[in-house]
Fold this protein.
Amino acid sequence: MSVRKVTVATLAALKARNEKAVFVTAYDYPTATFADRAGVDMILVGDSAAMTMLGLPSTLQIGLDEMLVFIKAVARAAKHAFVVGDLPFLSYQPSDETAIRSAGAFIAAGCDAVKCEGGSRVARRVRAMVDAGIAVMGHLGLTPQSIGQLGGYRVQGKCLAAAERLLRDAEALERAGAFAILLEAVPAETAAFVRERVGVLVYGIGAGPHVDGQLVISHDLLGNFVGDIAPRFVKRYAEVGAHVERAFSEYARDVRAGVFPGPEHCYEIDAADEALIRAARQTPAPAVGAGAGAGATP
Ligand code: KIV
């Protein structure tokens, strides 16, 4: 059966039908394959890979080359889902040319779109990428690449003035040609306020239900994140980490007890050959290192 790839037009049609888009992160081939087979609409190859995949303290430590490895794996898996590549810190901020080159590398590696953080202050970069023919998703609210300025992973847009600032940023992104905006960690009312005032698609992660689709980090929903961050907006659907740890413990127990491998895990050969090899084992083996050249000094 042929699988239809999700496009920007598919996403717009979902919104027109008042249907929510399903959006998850993935960073590797197997996870992206399972998400794609499950029918998710969009996969974000997030710079959260820094923490979820590389054990780094924040997203500020991951670079373009590392992101490209994850992007290529996910793009190979995504037969249906729309793939968004997350531009890492300093891969788009310095200049329009840097932004176009970084985004272009992501598209060449198989992304359908790129995402970058910030509103008015990155609008010029967004316009440059859009003018180069690249679909761009903006990212507002809690923007982890600006964590130093935000003073921590805090909820954003908690009062009317802050909601209006978010709206001005969203409008700047819309004018710059972004096809969508992701709102992270904002109250549901603020997300609704922004979404009702812009024409582009608005997705949310920790932004309540009044948006065009939901994003969750796959490690948070699968239960295999190794670290202390546990956002309240996540619902856990599996305990993959606990299952994996239990499997490794049971394997270790079996190896140490000599019950793995069992006969069913061994290759069979002809009985006559087996008898000959067994008989040969009775002949004393030469001492290790006694062969020609071994250990010899010229
Ligand atoms: O990198 C990422 O996964 C993200 C989401 C947290 C929005 O940017």
Remarks:
- The mean pLDDT is 95.
- The longest strand covers residues 136-141.
- The two ends are 66 Å apart (CA to CA).
- DSSP finds twelve helices and eight strands in the chain.
